[in-house]
Amino acid sequence: MEPKLTHLCYCLLLFLPLLSQSTIAKPSSSPNPSNNSINFIVSSCRVTRYQTLCVKCLATFANKIRRNENRLTQTALAVTLVRVQSTTVYVAKLTKARRIKRREYLAVKDCVENLGDGLEMLAQSMRELRQVGGSGRDRDEFLWRLSNVETWVSAALTDETTCLDGFDGKVMDGVVKSAIRRRVVHVARVTSNALALVNRFAARHKS
Question: Dihedral sign, CA of 142, 77, 24, 45?
């Protein structure tokens, strides 16, 4: 196994506890979320660039989010982490694709590295946001942790968009580029939405 892929597998093992221990990692078992919870999600998603996608990602968790902004933000990050994780594993498998050209292979490897870095940023963000909930008495620490989350989620989004840079130009057109672009564009939009919700959460507490 390639060293970078070994590192990726190790990182994913570290991230799994974050999801399994989270009270928001799984959808609510209740089939009928309240209108207030759904309306809260719809209203919150108005600050995002991809509003329909935002609501679709979060509505399943409405009964857990309720009208809690911290839970909403944590859920957005958890959903993002899961989807980026899935995409990273998928892209990594493409290095083993038959008849992959060397230029494509190198671009895929770079993409895996970028997505892996983004995963680390998102995992750090989830850990930090949990600490925010326990540091409300110290306003300076509270705002410092929120600033960290904003910075790291923004960095993750940059990593995702950078993933596609290696596939620029018509010479790279093909099945591999198409498959990666479709998935990475999706997770970049999910991450963009999460960042907007993080920024909204932070702005409300900074004012």
Answer: positive
Kindly state the DSSP code that residue 50 receives in the 8-state scheme: S
Q: Report the SS3 class of residue 2.
A: coil
**Residue 207 DSSP code:** -
pLDDT along the chain (207 residues), means of 10: 47 48 48 77 97 96 91 95 95 87 90 95 92 66 90 97 87 84 95 97 84
Both structure tokens of 133: 């909930």
**Residue 171 covered by a domain:** yes
Q: Report the predicted TM-score, pTM, of the whole model to 2 decimal places.
A: 0.84
Distance separating the N- and C-terminal Cα atoms of the chain:
50
Total domain count, the chain: 1
Question: What CATH number is given to the structural domain containing 174?
Answer: 1.20.140.40
H helices present in the chain, as ranges:
3-20, 35-44, 51-59, 62-65, 69-93, 102-134, 139-163, 175-206
